[in-house]
């Protein structure tokens, strides 16, 4: 899992509650990403960040928010506005946004009851 | 609209045979293409990258080809082993750097 940690591995929340997923990297990478993966499907980009204090929406940003106050950290908040939040969430980083390879964390499986 | 298709959801082969996975795309002009391996409940792991001006890349038992005319990449695993069983994802990247992933192909290698 290459220097990227995500916590917790499993997370349960009640409907209507906001929840924040943690992502930390010690690879000194500038770029960080959040993806969502649903069963049998590929990864869909939620948000990405090229540098500290900067981030852009991906393909499915509605109902999510992020912050990038430190280079090492890129937390994702799943808000109550996200209609189908139950999914597997993956964080990744790369040297730069236009770099070749993304390194992924182990993922957080979020279940909203 | 842009679309990435990976061949059949599941591929079953016998140990020792060559597995061939396909990634087709439409309405896309990728600068490069990547293949990742994903095991159940874990994050993807990078395997190989091939650029638009390259025809073929190899790494040990893995080979990737990239045909921009056919808009297709083929991913081969030779002398397959049960340990190669996993889901394989292709990802296309434009010069802007954003990656778009296919849905993946689940490979099962039977002993």
Helix content of chain B: under 10%
Number of strands of chain B: 11
State Rg of chain B.
Answer: 13 Å
SSE sequence of chain A, one letter per element: EEEEEEEEEEE
If you average the pLDDT of chain A, what whole number results? Answer: 92
The span between the termini of chain B is 41 Å
The description of the largest β-sheet of chain A is: 7 strands, mixed
Number of helices of chain B: 0
Question: Topology of this protein?
Answer:
The complex is a heterodimer of chains A (113) and B (111).
Chain A: E1 4-7, E2 10-13, E3 19-25, E4 31-37, E5 43-51, E6 54-57, E7 64-66, E8 76-78, E9 87-94, E10 103-104, E11 108-112
Parallel strand pairs in A: 2-11
Antiparallel strand pairs in A: 1-3, 3-8, 4-5, 4-9, 5-6, 7-8, 9-10, 9-11
Chain B: E1 3-6, E2 10-14, E3 19-26, E4 32-38, E5 45-51, E6 56-59, E7 62-67, E8 72-77, E9 86-93, E10 99-101, E11 105-110
Parallel strand pairs in B: 2-11
Antiparallel strand pairs in B: 1-3, 3-8, 4-5, 4-9, 6-7, 7-8, 9-10, 9-11
